[in-house]
Amino acid sequence: MERRKIRPREGWQRIVEEQGLVWHTQAGKPYWDESAAYVFTLKQIETLEAAAERCHELFLKAGDHLAKRPEKLARFGIPDWAIDAVMAEWKRDRPALDYGRFDFGWNGTGEPKLFEYNCDTPTSMLECGVVQWQWKEEVFPALDQFTSLHDRLIDRWRYMARDLPGRRLWVTHHADDLHEDTVTTTYMRDLAEQAGLETRGILIERIGIDAEGRIVDEEDYLITALFKLYPWEWIVAEDYGRDIVRRMDSCLWLEPIWKMLWSNKAILPLLYELEPRHPNLLPAGWDAASAGPRHVVKPILAREGANISIVEDGRETARSEGPYGAFGQVYQGLYDLPSFGGAYPVLGVWTVGGEAAGLGIREGGRITGDEARFVPHIIEG
Amino acid sequence: MEKKLTLTVTLAAALAGLSGCSDSDDLEYRAASNTRVCVDDWGQRIADEYCEQRSGRVGGGSFVYLRSGSPIPYYYDNVRDKRYASFISRTPPVGFVDAAPAATNMSRSSAISRGGLGSSARSFGRGG
Fold first, then answer.
1. Tens digit of pLDDT for each residue in B19-56?
2. Which residue on chain B is closest to A195 by alpha carbon?
3. Which residues in chain A are contacts of B6 at CB distance < 8 A?
4. What is the DSSP track for A276-326?
5. ipTM of the assembly?
6. Comparing C-alpha atoms, which of B109, B122, B112, B125 is closest to residue A240?
7. Residue A129 DSSP one-character state
8. What is the reported pTM?
9. Option in B8, B110, B127 nearest A190 (CB)
């Protein structure tokens, strides 16, 4: 694993914009950063693939464990009235994309260590599935890259198509200022349509509810299958949350509500409890002692690296601010990210249906926040 | 190998000149040829299987026929609505008759409220 400096393509901003990546520059700095690339051997990529697939199996095991021991959900921050629905949907096992991004720390040797699993509203999908691949094709056409996300998602939609009434899918998101969510959901529509589905977009604020508690689109058509780029913990906290949970049968939600189990950092202590010798786990628990003298404190429900602190031998050595301070927090052993001249990469390995599907690298400080850059990669040797 | 994108690149091009966007689409489908739809006794469109009197089918519906160019009703839309008046017939037309496109096989309800989702995004900002 190596970080190599590379000359960016002439007019790269226009090139990636045309591919949909309109948020390539943030606060005047490149978010898409092709002035460098990470270089892996095939053997290293195979290690990452195996780690992600092993972690996916462990998450399945944890879900089954919670189904038998639902009292352990008390620390997940899920409203009491929603827990039965979450576990019922887990047991019901309705169709799901079952996609997500395992974020690992790794220096290319030994085993990657899992930080978290982003599987309810994972972003950087377009960057991983399309933009870095097109970059690779142009700059290193003879080399390979760990990127099958695009094709695997099309295959997954094709596999699920018969379970969507009328082969129809609604897609929703919040209209963010950067247009990142807008483009990401539009990209998902592209993939679903290539799989033969008819799709329709709707902003989440415009969804309505009928007298029976079913969700409807802007023209009052019942939404029967909905892909949402909007976290479940937000949905259940909002006005329609109770109706949506009560009428779960009226719509195939993608991803399903049981993703509240997996995308919640409260699962990290449980994973460690289930398999303390797992090669890809860091110690994790509900107090500092369980994570060791050098640890990270994370809110159970937070995004973009917010509200995280790093503690080393009783002293806080790094901290990020954010709006998630009110939630419970977990403690996880500190993994020292490799530093490449002050750039610290986190390796996001995508899986679809439990199979490894690609690698996206975010590079920032010791805590990977929303200012982190996306840096492409290649496989050499 | 090129990754095929249609909607994404179109949207990206549009966003270049926009500060905000709506994903709203026009949902009205029109018959490309003579098209049959199954309706119940009250004129509401129902699934075709209710009109296909084969063994094991539920029955209870009858086909009506829409001329080319007619708007196609969704499930539970009423074909007695004036939108369909100039296009509809109970008698099968001469020649080929299409089934309604699968895209129109969905149901309509009536919203009693809107805006009950989305507030957290305004508090917390970006998603995953």
1. 434 444 445 789 999 999 999 888 989 888 888 866 55
2. B4
3. 190, 193
4. TT-TTPPPEESSHHHH-SEEEEEESS--TTTT-EEEETTEEEEE---S-TT
5. 0.88
6. B112
7. I
8. 0.86
9. B8
Q: Closest Cα partner for A362 from A94, A51, A14, A26?
A: A26
Q: How many C-beta neighbours within 10 Å does residue A342 have?
A: 8
User: Token pair of A9, please?
Assistant: 């393509």
Tell me which amino acid residue A47 is.
T
Instruction: Return the pLDDT at A367.
Output: 77
Task: State both tokens at B63.
Answer: 């086909």
Cβ-based contacts under 8 A for chains A and B: 189
Q: Is residue B82 packed enough to be buried (19+ CB in 10 Å), middle (13-18) or exposed (0-12)?
A: exposed
**H helix intervals, chain A:** 12-18, 42-68, 80-92, 125-126, 132-139, 149-160, 180-194, 232-237, 241-246, 259-262, 267-274, 288-291
Q: Which of A176, A222, A240 minimises the CB distance to B108?
A: A222
Q: Are A308 and A302 in contact (CB under 8 A)?
A: yes
Nearest to B111 among A190, A209, A304 (CB): A209
Residue A340: pLDDT above 90? yes
Reduced to 3 states (helix: H, G, I; strand: E, B; else coil), residue A164 is coil
- Rounded-to-integer distance, Cα A255 and Cα A121, Å: 8
